[in-house]
Design a protein that fits this description.
alpha+beta, 8 strands, eight-stranded mixed beta sheet
Amino acid sequence: MPQSVMSFGGFDLVPITQADVPQIVAWRSRPEVHEWYGGRPVTGEEIRSRHLESGDPTTRCIVHLESRPIGHLQFYEYITEWRPAIGLGPEDDGVWGLDVYLGEPELHGRGIGTRLVRGVAECLVSDHGARSVVIDPHVGNHAAVRCYEKAGFRKVRLLPSYERIRGEWKDAWLMEWDPGV
């Protein structure tokens, strides 16, 4: 396994490589995943283009729990051109975002996602100097919203028509991590 970019509580976040593409395609082919993450299955070429060849400043990882690959997580500092999409201004430095899915449905509802996003938020603050950590689940993804609330995130504002899924614009919640929770 390549070197982790973040490790805590049995989790290791390892940068995505070409060897991971078939696993990501398999996860994203599962309705439980693509319903809330992209809206449809993806091809290997789409994953390579988006995750391996993108020049944006995003750290894309395979999440390992006790050495088993279980999902995908990416984190990034909001650069100036991304900030307006979530209502941030040019002065809003130090805001980090994360996106996550567990690719193994039998792991859903067991508190793993809660532990994962809380641990990542803590590491982004302590290791990367994040002033704020945000996540943006779809309004209808009640399980994810509950998971993030248990991890210490709170709803900040509605992001109307935030992402197009299967030809329809969907609202999302902007949720911010409160380290005091």
